[in-house]
Every structure is written in C-alpha cells, then in structure tokens.
Specification:
The chain is of the alpha+beta class. 42% of the residues lie in helices and 26% in strands. The protein is built from seven helices and six strands; from the N terminus they run H-H-H-H-H-H-E-E-E-E-E-H-E. Strands 1, 2, 3, 4, 5 and 6 form a six-stranded antiparallel sheet that branches. Strand 4 and strand 5 form a beta hairpin.
C-alpha cells in the first residue's frame, strides 16, 4: 500500500523537532490553529516560535475580520481582503467569492441579519470552507454556508479575482 504524500509529510512534521528540521512546521501549526478557529492561539504561537515582539498586520487584520461589529451590511469587501491576506501570509491558496441572487436586492444571514442591501456580498474560499465575518474564524463548508443564507430567486456564488 502506498501512503499519500500528504500523510507522509504530516508524519515527518509531527516527528521532527519544530523549526530546525522543517521551516514549514510553524506555518502548518498556524494553519491548524486557524482551521480550529483559534486566531488568538495562532498569533500567540507565531510570536512564541518566531521570537517577534510585534504581530504582522496581516494576522492582526485576520483576527479583527471576525469581530461581531463586521456582521452587518457594508464591510464585507474589507473583511474578505483581511481574511485573504491572513491566509496568504501563511502561504495558503484562497479565492474571493462574490455571492448574489437572481432576484431582489437583499441577502440575509439566517433571516435575522442583513448581509447586503445591494445584492452583493464578498467572502473567501480557503480549501473546502467559506470564510467571512458571519462564519467566524472556523469557516463553514459551502453547503452549510448556503443553508444560512436567505435570498430571493436563485443563489449565485462566483469565484472572482478581485473583491
């Protein structure tokens, strides 16, 4: 039986001493913390392992993107940029996603919070998850995310190069 390359790399990282043997181990640990939705833990890990006193702006912005004050119509493009830049800092491949519907001007989250009054919302797809202020730092699968949205007509999720 042949082991998938990812499993072999993961085992090598787990068995090695942290930063000396594998410079990417910090990045992997940070991505794991972010996948759990632990942005504060990711930042603390970065500081502890790098010895840096200041936190990179991209990680600060990433953490701030999920503040509840951003769960309103309006700041989605800025929030998406902050999330995208946070993942980019760690070497992740992300995409912007523009969300709209074929009818009406409004998109809402769980029929309780207005996401958009101009039929356009921007989020980030990273791996198999969608991230925005409404999902929180753990993100959601696309199927779960779509279930939370309320809209008129049909929902359209389009990958775009710029928000």
């Amino acid at each position: 039986m042949r082991w998938p390359v990812f499993i072999m790399q993961l085992c090598a990282v787990m068995l090695a001493s942290p930063a000396e043997a594998h410079p990417d181990s910090l990045r992997l640990k940070l991505l794991a913390a972010l996948a759990r939705g632990d942005t504060a833990g990711a930042i603390a890990l970065w500081q502890a392992e790098s010895g840096a006193q200041t936190v990179p702006k991209s990680l600060q912005s990433f953490q701030a993107a999920f503040n509840t004050v951003n769960r309103v119509a309006g700041p989605c493009v800025r929030v998406a940029k902050d999330i995208y830049e946070g993942f980019s800092f760690l070497g992740g491949q992300s995409q912007y996603v523009r969300i709209s519907s074929t009818g009406g001007n409004y998109l809402s989250w769980q029929s309780r919070i207005l996401m958009s009054d101009n039929n356009s919302h921007t989020a980030v797809r990273h791996g198999a998850k969608i991230y925005d202020a409404f999902t929180g730092p753990a993100g959601m699968s696309e199927a779960e995310y779509v279930k939370q949205l309320h809209y008129a007509g049909a929902l359209v999720l389009k990958t775009v190069t710029m928000p």
